[in-house]
Backbone:
């Protein structure tokens, strides 16, 4: 039996797509795509169709037959002609329940394209941290793919990766499972999270860390601080969206069991 491995790609470009074959991959874009996806599905969205570009999203919307909305951003702002942007707050039940969301974002939906060779692709954010940890704790090879911001490493995604690894390690330790090997990048992410936790214990909020990260600075500038506060909440939702790699549609697996 191969020894379990926990890995982190600080950017999609830092991992070869073919190396993800057979792995459980968690794509994270805390600010804001993966947080938005979790929120939309929790609020009744039927399914999400992630798109790599604005043009692809428009084409998918034109071809879609059914009740759909088109959402996404460029530079953090809603794309002209789209129904919604990329704010997890705006995908309320009134806006999204029983509808398909066609979503194109600058970083998160693009990162998913990099993961087509994976065994499975899950959607992670701080808001569903524990649910993702529980879902992947027994998987032999787990890689967190951080979406970054404009092809640069961003702290909030790395913090999620570190927090997730900490949870997985705790679950495995408590159940006498082998923790496995942490790659260098996984160790860096875990160390970043543990250092941050020391400041959190002294009263600093996670939202403050996010505001000073690359992705957060831009959101503050364009007036989306409420999104940062929302995205900094840990374990708000107990659901793990999964990307159907054949149909390229994200669903909440819990809805498939009902």
Residues:
């Amino acid at each position: 039996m191969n020894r379990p491995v926990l890995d982190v790609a600080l950017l999609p470009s830092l991992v070869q797509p073919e190396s993800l074959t057979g792995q459980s991959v968690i794509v994270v874009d805390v600010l804001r795509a993966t947080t938005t996806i979790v929120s939309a599905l929790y609020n009744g969205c039927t399914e999400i169709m992630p798109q790599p570009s604005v043009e692809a999203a428009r084409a998918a919307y034109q071809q879609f037959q059914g009740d759909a909305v088109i959402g996404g951003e460029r530079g953090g702002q809603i794309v002209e002609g789209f129904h919604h942007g990329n704010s997890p707050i705006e995908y309320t039940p009134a806006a999204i329940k029983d509808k398909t969301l066609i979503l194109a974002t600058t970083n998160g939906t693009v990162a998913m394209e990099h993961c087509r060779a994976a065994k499975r692709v899950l959607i992670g954010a701080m808001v569903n941290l524990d649910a993702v940890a529980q879902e992947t704790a027994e998987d032999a090879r787990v890689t967190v793919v951080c979406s970054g911001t404009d092809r640069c490493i961003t702290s909030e995604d790395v913090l999620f990766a570190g927090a997730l690894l900490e949870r997985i390690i705790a679950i495995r330790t408590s159940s006498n499972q082998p923790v496995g090997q942490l790659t260098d990048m996984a160790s860096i992410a875990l160390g970043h999270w543990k250092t941050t936790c020391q400041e959190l214990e002294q009263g600093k909020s996670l939202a403050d860390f996010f505001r000073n990260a690359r992705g957060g600075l831009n959101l503050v500038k364009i007036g989306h601080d409420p999104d940062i506060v929302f995205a900094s909440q840990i374990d708000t939702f107990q659901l793990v969206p999964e990307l159907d790699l054949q149909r390229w549609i994200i669903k909440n697996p819990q809805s498939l069991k009902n």
Observations:
- The chain is about 40% helix and 20% strand.
- The mean pLDDT is 95.
